[in-house]
């Protein structure tokens, strides 16, 4: 026990932990004042740096395309003889389930109905087409490029170049080995705060979706997400992912993700086939064309038909939220990649996950849009009456077997967040410990429990007293420092590509 206390990096653990505890206490005493302060900070970030969120995400796509075709793309992470941790299927299952969390389950159905009822002004596509096109924008290539850049940098540094288990490893190609001494703890502490913000926001969305489902089962309609009900739901989720995290990567996460991805695929196939299939496919085709036609302009935030206020409320929120998760997710995804080539890493983390996300959005978002039109606005009515947490169950009510599909949906929400939180809590805990290497033991259970409880309390305070507005605020605040880290990391990845053309990298090929 004493040895574990001596291994703790207190300069990483305490800087993000203490402010989070203070904010939770303040929120209980004066939630209105705290949210007002956070709103001011969030607005300042969006006014001054909204363009940087958009342009940086787009630049990552171009950078990854260059990496893919470069000599660096042939490099095997960990060296030519590196042993793979996971089979290709398990690698994809863990990657997909740990990066989407509850997002596609909650926002993948609620968001298109928001867009359908209040689309941007003239000049854009027909509302349903615009709504589905926007889902593709927010949940496919662009956001996954953030994760892929960070994960690839960490994998190369950790396995191929012997760098420490620290987020400063992402900066080593730019600043050299001195970055670990002078900035390592600062970078890790900032990113821990960013991740707690992102995880709390996702847990808040998941708890609202679960509350909406329970309302339907218990009361027949959305009865409201009370603080007590949210506390019970969040407590159960925290307990589950803490127990799973304690079992380690090769047991808990691998098992959960396998069940999770199978459940995702089966439920999406049912919704697509049981719904208005032909109309949904036609809408998907039109939405995909609109997505392709406006991809660059909307990514860069220069589409003249998109007002700044709308962009801040939706697209900037998503980029910030993905950024908030990205640093610690990079550690986890990079840790899985040993023995695979750089090109395969890009395929799995960018292309395959994007295709999976697009398929889900067609099945759920597309079906929701078509059914809302055919039912005279039943889903829009559910959104207005019961909030976004009620929309998913209004969708399932239009299909056969509501009692069973709603139960499956509830279970998937629970498993989805548990799987994602499991992976990130494991990475966060390892970040707070010394001497974590490619073959060393994971962080102690006590550290994982500490971060699990911190995330749970933060999320409960946030969603109970600030609702969806609080989720958006904390995502923006958490994503900003992470964006700065990844911009520097992208410069380092570009330098590695340049060195690969000059023969300065390991060119071992994947067997």
List keywords for this structure.
21 helices; 511 residues
What does this protein structure show overall?
With 511 residues, the protein is mostly helical. It is 79% helix and 0% strand. The chain contains 21 helices and no strands. Helix 4 crosses helix 12 (249-274), helix 10 (184-219) packs across helix 11 and helix 17 (378-386) runs antiparallel to helix 18 (391-397). The longest helix has 39 residues, at 31-69. The two termini are 43 Å apart. Mean pLDDT is 82; it is low at 218-223 and 505-511.
Quick overview of this protein structure:
Helix content is 79%, strand content 0%.
Mean pLDDT across every amino acid position = 82
Rg (CA only): 22 Å
Q: Biggest sheet: strands, sense, closure?
A: none
Counting helices, strands and paired strands, the structural category is mainly alpha
Indicate the low-confidence ranges by residue numbers: 218-223, 505-511
Order of helices and strands: HHHHHHHHHHHHHHHHHHHHH
* Molecular shape: globular
Q: How many extended strands? A: 0
């Amino acid at each position: 026990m004493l040895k574990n206390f001596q291994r703790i990096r207190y300069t990483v653990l305490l800087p993000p932990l203490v402010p989070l505890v203070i904010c939770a206490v303040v929120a209980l005493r004066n939630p209105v004042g705290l949210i007002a302060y956070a709103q001011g900070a969030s607005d300042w970030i969006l006014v001054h740096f909204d363009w940087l969120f958009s342009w940086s995400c787009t630049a990552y796509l171009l950078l990854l395309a260059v990496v893919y075709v470069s000599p660096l793309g042939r490099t095997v992470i960990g060296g030519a003889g590196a042993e793979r941790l996971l089979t290709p299927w398990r690698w994809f299952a863990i990657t997909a389930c740990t990066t989407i969390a509850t997002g596609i389950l909650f926002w993948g159905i609620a968001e298109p109905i928001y867009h359908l009822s209040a689309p941007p002004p003239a000049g854009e596509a027909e509302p349903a087409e615009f709504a589905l096109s926007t889902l593709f924008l927010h949940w496919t290539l662009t956001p996954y490029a953030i994760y892929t850049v960070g994960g690839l940098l960490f994998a190369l540094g950790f396995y191929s170049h012997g760098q420490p288990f620290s987020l400063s490893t992402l900066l080593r190609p730019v600043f050299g080995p001195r970055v670990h001494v002078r900035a390592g703890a600062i970078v890790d502490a900032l990113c821990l705060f960013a991740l707690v913000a992102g995880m709390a926001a996702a847990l808040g969305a998941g708890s609202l979706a679960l509350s909406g489902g329970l309302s339907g089962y218990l009361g027949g309609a959305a009865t409201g997400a009370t603080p007590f009900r949210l506390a019970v739901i969040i407590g159960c989720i925290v307990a589950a992912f803490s127990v799973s995290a304690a079992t380690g990567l090769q047991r808990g996460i691998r098992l959960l993700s396998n069940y999770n991805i199978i459940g995702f695929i089966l439920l999406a196939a049912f919704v697509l086939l049981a719904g208005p299939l032909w109309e949904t496919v036609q809408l998907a085709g039109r939405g995909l064309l609109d997505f392709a036609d406006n991809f660059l302009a909307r990514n860069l935030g220069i589409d003249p038909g998109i007002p700044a206020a709308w962009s801040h409320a939706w697209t900037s929120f998503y980029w910030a939220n993905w950024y908030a998760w990205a640093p610690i997710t990079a550690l986890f995804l990079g840790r899985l990649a040993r023995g695979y080539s750089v090109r395969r890493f890009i395929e799995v983390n960018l292309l395959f996950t994007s295709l999976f996300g697009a398929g889900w959005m067609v099945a759920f978002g597309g079906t929701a849009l078509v059914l809302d039109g055919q039912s005279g606005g039943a889903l829009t009515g559910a959104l207005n009456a019961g909030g976004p947490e009620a929309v998913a169950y209004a969708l399932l009510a239009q299909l056969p077997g509501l009692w069973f599909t709603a139960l499956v949906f509830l279970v998937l929400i629970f498993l989805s967040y548990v799987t994602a939180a499991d992976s990130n809590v494991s990475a966060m805990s390892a970040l707070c410990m010394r001497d974590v290497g490619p073959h060393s033991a994971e962080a102690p259970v006590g550290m994982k429990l500490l971060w699990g409880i911190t995330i749970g309390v933060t999320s409960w305070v946030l969603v109970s007293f600030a609702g969806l507005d609080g989720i958006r605020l904390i995502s923006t605040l958490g994503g900003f420092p992470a964006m700065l880290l990844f911009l520097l990391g992208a410069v380092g990845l570009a330098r590695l590509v340049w060195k690969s053309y000059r023969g300065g990298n390991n060119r071992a090929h994947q067997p």
